[in-house]
Amino acid sequence: MNDPTVLSKLLRLAKQAGAPSEDTYDRDGGFSYHAETHAAGVGFGVGVVAMTIGEMRYVSALLAIAFGANRGPKLSSAKIVEDIRQEPHYALGGLALGLLLGALISR
Question: How many domains does the chain have?
């Protein structure tokens, strides 16, 4: 069924963005599966919070995860850490946007 409504397109996009791999659906590219959307979302959230409250250690932690630092089995076994490590460029892009928005909010 090919429903042309905006809502159906948004729902289809959201469903595809949560796919377990890029091979799940025909659409391939930006935000086409869960690791990309998770990494970007975490980066964005960390950036907004860090800039708004002035705690850059959260940014440091995200950068350490994105670039492969490991602080033990408990941290490395978290699924979101795996997503950030798998798609660090999405995490860093989200971080940059989050820092920008956080700077605007905290003015």
Answer: 1
Total Cβ atoms within 10 A of residue 5: 8
72's torsion region: left (phi>0), alpha (psi -120 to 50) or beta? left
pLDDT tens digits, 2-57: 657 877 666 666 566 555 665 555 656 666 677 888 899 999 999 999 999 999 99
Sign of the dihedral defined by the CA atoms of residues 84, 52, 100, 6, in that order:
positive
The neighbour count for residue 8, using CB atoms within 10 Å, is: 12
Does residue 26 form part of some domain?
no
The verdict on residue 17 lying in a domain is: no
- The answer as to whether 25 is a domain residue is no
Domain hosting residue 81, numbered range: 33-105
Cα dihedral value 11, 17, 23, 26, nearest 10: 40
